[in-house]
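To: structure subgroup
Subject: Chain for Friday's discussion

All,

I'm putting the inputs and outputs inline so they're searchable in the archive.
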Amino acid sequence: MRETMTIRKVGVCGAGGTMGAAIAIVAARGGFETVSYDISQASLARAGVESEGFFSKSVARGKLEASDRDEIIARMSSTTKLDDLADCDLVIEAIFEDLATKQALFAKLDPICPEWTIFASNTSTLSITEIASAVARQDRVVGMHFCLPAQLMKLIEMSAGMNTSKETFETAWAFTEAAGQTPVETQDKPGFILNAFVVPFNNDAIRAVEAGVAEPAEIDRALRVGLGYRMGPLELLDLIGLDTQVRLCEAFYPTTLDPRSAAPPLLKRMVAAGQLGRKSGRGFYSYEGGKMFGS
């Protein structure tokens, strides 16, 4: 084990998805060599095109020099082989929000990665302690919940499991700051800080639509203008995925018994109909091309 830990190379699992692709952007933009992993080559290719489009738009808006864009993209690579993450100092998973699936991923990575590699989970509904129980390096597992859209938002909620070492937490914290993000420390509880407020709030917006208070666009516009939000709750729901909101509700309601945290009937119907938001092309709004937010 190294006496001191320096993050140089980052692996991102689930990087073919919206969140994983955004986390890869954050890592590469922060100066880290970044390897994007997914089981689907097609998803990785699509994410790569969208990421390049995001950086090119940043250049067009004068927020990034063309030379910087090229350097960032040069730091990014993709793979469908877990073995290609063997020399990563930090592996961040942003895969399907299921405990067994996350545990299985880290269990496969455990013998592949060197003993100093830190495993981080982007979960917002599952226990970091339970996720870590699947590996021998429980002291080197930490929670890093990025706020969507991660390539635009700075917040990362950092949580330690019961066996997470101080060194691991501090190293992961230092990585977030080096990547230009803003970390906050939370307890290992579902929802952490942000979603504990946002999930019931977003449900309120869904119920307003279901009750016929106003159309989704009007609700979002009112909250953007009146409260200064960068995006409305229904836009946000389409971005994170309506199926993800259902899973968040299923995690929070049993522990809080707060009726505002229970999934609204309209949300369940939309998910059953396959209207999941941006990733399906239709949610509270309709989308064409599935472009990454901000690109």
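Points worth raising on Friday:
DSSP finds eleven helices and eight strands in the chain.
The radius of gyration is 19 Å.

D.
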